[in-house]
Amino acid sequence: MPVAELNPQSAIRNPQSGAEVVVSVRGLTKVFKDFWKRPKARAVDNVDFEVRQGEVFGLLGPNGSGKSTTVKLLLGLLNPTKGHIEVFGHSPRHVQTKSRIGYLPEESYLYRYLNSRETLDFFGNLFHLDKKDRDNRAEQLLEMVGLGKTQTRAVGEFSKGMQRRIGLAQALINDPDLIILDEPTAGLDPIGCREVKDLILALARRGKTVILSSHLLSDVEDVCDRVVIYYGGKIQAAGTLKELLATPDTLRITTPVLPRETLERVLDIIRRDILIGEVRVDNPTQNLESYFLDVVNKARAANETSGAQSGARVAEYLRGGLEAKPATEKVLEKLSLPQAAPPVAETKPAATPKVDDTKLAALAQASQPAPQPPARPASAPEAKPVDLSKADEKLSALLGKPK
Q: Which is nearest to 200 in space by CA: 102, 96, 290, 296?
């Protein structure tokens, strides 16, 4: 059986080959030059590929093979030396086209003194979302990426994995049609990795297009429909995972446990018909990710953690009204927190600024009658028309400050 068929996730989706072309690349070449305009490195060399709507497309290759350069060219951050790029039928530098793209860079470039809510509000404001939409989407995204209980913490205090989570949330704040993810699972724990992969599949089912660049081949194998493999700036292999991973000269047969006598008879029949090759019998095993998630799920029922929580369901506005399929939402629902009071509702009172209490105290003091100064001795000099010390005393009483 081909390897791709062994993965249950690969059978969830079947993108149509006749879908709209979202990204078209023809003869793309990028040569970096030194100060004297002499060629220094040919990062991308005559590359051709297409990405269609609803497809998860993988960019693979070793370090320095041209993946990140290709991503920057698609985003319009770099100009190609030669070749042609179209994104939604326009140049990558077309301003209106950029509003339909969500991008998670390899490194999380965030304002370290903003908290999670402020970060998402900032990026939502860049897309001219109104205040109500920004608040609604931010709340859903923070719950989805497991940061619902860290909304008031500064992003600069986050671990690398938590920064990747908030980075993923900001890439989705504008509900993009094309999502470009550069190493999205770098620094994430296995639970976060599984949730990101489930999210990618959910987005693709809704018709979103995802371009994924990653060194973790297991992640790519779980979610990608087609991949290209770079080396030396050139595409060395391209196609669907089923085409690339199939081994047609080998067959796997899986059965329940058989009695020893039955197994011997089956092996004798097989060996009589096979002249060359080895016949092996072993027990199938689950992958480490599945085992890890099962252990964590059991531990969650009896233990608490102060780290990142597993996310809830995919944000409502990202699902677009489509019901999530059980096969994809399985891990998200299995690992979600018990349905008690929502975490966001618990954190809102804590986010209320203390200035309100100070103002109330000042108003209460202002409503009280002003204290009368003690009678002055007869020998005391007559007060000046404006006594600044009394003004300071009244101002201090109003602000609740010590004299």
A: 102
